[in-house]
Amino acid sequence: MARNLTGKHGAYFEAVLQLRDISPKVIDYAEDEIARVKLHVAKVIKLKNGFDYYLSDNSLARALGKRLQEKFGGEHTVTASLWGVKKDREVYRVTVLFRGIQFEAKDIVEYKKEQYVVKSLGKDIFLQNEKTGKKVHVRYKNMGEIKTIN
């Protein structure tokens, strides 16, 4: 459940959800989930390649980033930085980055100059060579090596 904001200003946030290189489906899903858990959004910034959502609860933002990665595939990174100390306790602000991918399961792609079928998108990208049947997995940090074929 979303944290109570009583006594906090309207611009209060604990986490930034960064959505980059994403489809409208990802935006709709993220906004539906934010509304479903009644997560306070301090502000939204539209950027050239995505959006930044300033959210009131860092654990819910982390969970949302993980669900986005599980549902759509893509790069999911969480970083935390010390924001201050309150009542002898360190307070961290969290940045959750979700970077989408330009292909989906069953798409045909090129990887290392060979054609592959995208078998699944989970923790990694699983590809199967069209000719040899050989299966490979590619980490999201290396997804730039995969090219979509029109």
Structural notes for this entry:
It is built from two helices and ten strands; from the N terminus they run E-H-E-E-H-E-E-E-E-E-E-E. The strands form two sheets. It has a five-stranded mixed sheet, covered by helices on one side. A five-stranded antiparallel sheet has the order 9-8-7-6-10. It starts with 14 loop residues before the first strand and ends with a strand. The protein has helices spanning 24-36, 58-72; strands at 15-20, 41-47, 50-55, 75-86, 89-99, 108-111, 114-121, 125-129, 135-138, 146-148. The chain folds into two domains: 15-99, no CATH class; 108-148. 19% of the residues lie in helices and 44% in strands. It is of the alpha+beta class.
Main beta sheet strand tally, sense and closure = 5 strands, mixed
* Beta-strand content bin: 35-45%
Please tally the helical runs, counting DSSP H or I stretches of 4 or more residues: 2
Q: What is the string of helix and strand elements?
A: EHEEHEEEEEEE
Radius of gyration: 18 Å
Please tell me the overall pLDDT.
Answer: 87
Please report the distance between the alpha carbons of the first and last residues. 43 Å
Number of DSSP strand runs: 10
User: Could you name the ranges where pLDDT drops below 50 across 5 or more consecutive residues?
Assistant: 1-7
Overall shape: it is elongated
Count of domains:
2
Main sheet strand line-up: 2-3-1-5-4
Instruction: Indicate the percent of residues in helices.
Output: 10-25%
Oligomer: single chain
What structural category do the secondary elements indicate?
alpha+beta
